[in-house]
Amino acid sequence: MKEITQRLQRIPVELIFWVGSLIAILFLEPNSGTHFSLCPLDQLGFNWCPGCGLGRSMNLLAKGDFQASWSMHPLAMLAYVVIFSRIWQLIKNLKTTHNYG
Predict the structure, then answer these.
(1) Among the listed residues 76, 77, 60, 59, the one whose alpha carbon sits nearest the alpha carbon of residue 68
(2) CA triple 71-76-80, angle to 5 deg
(3) What is the pLDDT of residues 7-54, one digit of tens each?
(4) What residues contact residue 87 under an 8 Å CB cut-off, 6+ apart?
(5) Alpha-carbon gap, residue 65 to 70, rounded angstroms
(6) Residue 83's pLDDT is what?
(7) What pTM value is reported for the model?
């Protein structure tokens, strides 16, 4: 049991965050009329934000609806590339070193 807890303590919080965010994106409902937003610009009442629609676009891309994804936000593929490359770096650092900082 002690070995398991030691292994879990070595997993970077950032890695858990990125994997969790990808899982959350898969469960989004992109076509719903209203959605919960953590966007600070949306919370301040602005109607436009450069990142709005990115999560829904990534969900559509994961489901294979490329045209709808592109029309919602054209940078969804780039966002996937950035997130997966960061996850890859964190896993590689976890395997090669005992710290990730």
Answers:
(1) 60
(2) 160
(3) 767 778 889 999 999 998 888 877 776 666 677 887 788 877 888 888
(4) 15, 18, 19
(5) 9
(6) 95
(7) 0.74
Say which amino acid occupies 36: F
Residue 54 φ then ψ, to 5°: -65, -45
Residue 45: DSSP 8-state: T
Contact between 51 and 39 under an 8 Å Cβ cutoff? The reply is yes
Q: How many residues does the chain have?
A: 101
Tokens of 33: 């009329």
Is the alpha carbon torsion for 96, 98, 100, 101 positive or negative? negative
**Residue 98 contacts residue 10 (beta carbons within 8 Å):** yes
